[in-house]
Design goal:
Layout lengths: L3 H9 L3 H16 L7 H4 L5 H11 L9 H19 L4 H8 L6 H17 E2 L4 E2 L4
Antiparallel strand pairs: 1-2
Helix pairs in contact: 5-6, 5-7
Amino acid sequence: MMPKSNIIKALEELDKKDIYSLILFILYRLKEIPEYSTLSELVYILDNENFIKLINYYGGKTIRIPKIDELSTILNALLVYEREQNTDLPLSDIFKDIGINKKEIPEIMKILQLIPQLMSDYDFKRETYKNKN
């Protein structure tokens, strides 16, 4: 067992991000919730202010972070939608111009069907989702 003075010295040598990381790792080990396992790394990605904002806003909630490919597919669908609305080109030409590969087309088609409804349900000025139910 490490003498008490060495533990205090080790803790004093940690910077703020390391302390938050340690706190989050202890939380993970204490609660044994697998989703907490990666939180201790989050403090090294965000600055302190944004980390605290994230915790204050999402504390107690479960969120899932999308993969970059998922965001890329949605962005491509938005590009297709914009072209479809503002040109007379057939979808096949739009897909070709944007560089959409064939395996991405089914997912893009699903997104294209959602976009008009989502555009009417989302208040972009307030950056919040309107619940119209």
